[in-house]
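Quick illustration, no need to memorize.
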Amino acid sequence: MAISERGMGIKRYTKKTPKSLEFYKEACKVMPGGTTANIKFFAPYPIVMDKGKGSRLYDLDGNEYIDYLLSYGALILGHGHPRVLQAVQEQLYDNGTYLFGTPHLLEVEMGRKIQQLYPGVELLRFTNSGTEATLLAIRLAYAYTGKNKIAKFEGHYHGGYDQVLVSVNPSIDEAGHPHQPRSVAESKGMDQYHEEHTVILPFNDLDAASDILRKRKDELAAVIVEPIQGGYIPAERSFMEGLRKLTEELDILLVFDEVKTCFRLGLGGAQEYYSIKPDLTALGKAVGGGYPIGITGGKKDIMEVSLPKAASDVFDSSQSKHSNARDVLFHSGTYNGHPSILAAGLETIAVLEEEISQINETADRLKTEISKLFLQRGIAVRTLGIGSIFNLIFTEKEQILNYRDLQSADFGLRRELDFQLINEGIYTKPLNRYSVSSAHGQEEIDQTLEAYDKVIKRL
């Protein structure tokens, strides 16, 4: 790309979105950085959306976009799918309330459906997010094994809490040796304790990971892994199979974080794709069809550590002289198993049972055609991903297997491409992955490829 072209995308972006800038300035008077979640921000300011329908988003200035962010993959049926809307409305009408505060029928109905799709989930608990799901999985692992450390892989994200918010995106200068990565805190306000109690492993390197796990096996309750790092860098089959055998041998629980991969590779997620049963599974995002939900499930004997007991209730003050709440793993939440959300999730699954193959085929077609456009102009790009999530990596490297390999990419070129595409009506947050929904059809693919062709010629 000519040096003079770099940055032109942002200049056009600011001209196209003046109302978003105006709103952002006002939002900064209400929220730090003008946003209620750091992930929603990007410089110079994020687009403020006004409406969504199907595959499309519309901003405050009336600009229309084909949405490939899809709320970071949660909207697998697109915006406002009529069957999901109808399911929620029927639940409200039939039940007469949006919250019981008690057990209800949809908890078992949704639970049974998840058990059918994920054979590793013998029992489960509902949470309100994928972050809560991984948090509960780790607490269960601690309680079940009696050990108080975990291992995670460099570059993998499992939520915004201290135990796992380490070595997600560390600088290479701090990250240590590739075969023995260091634990690097990713936020201010974190206690150094977590850098010492969360062991970092190299992804897709079984020999190096095995050396670390064997040395630390007596300390480690669990290994938590994104089977597809970031939703788009897949584990090699031999690596995943070896990790499963190794954790069983060392009596370390294996936790699959399928928050991103739930329904995205297939209805059975990454464990169906790899034919592996983890000890614990965390689900989120697409499982709620756009509503906030998480699920933690796993082997019966592990999950039953959370069995409630009347004499061990942290909230039951009448038992305070006699109870010992520490006898039971505490897990609770007012909105766990929210009936409206479970209705949305069940209908999402029903639609996917009919349409998931088509969604994955659409994504494959889009990946292939984008690759061809760059190849025709001699630009090295990798479209990485399986199923309905993928990402574009500008690199000459033949294989991208982990976080270290990813550092070879030209992020500046990718950022410029993303802003130029936004100006042409193709939206994902700059530098983010692409997700495809059932609302993306041939019209969306054609429009996307036309925009890519125009932008590549310009660059």
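Residues 5 and 294 are 43 Å apart (CA to CA).
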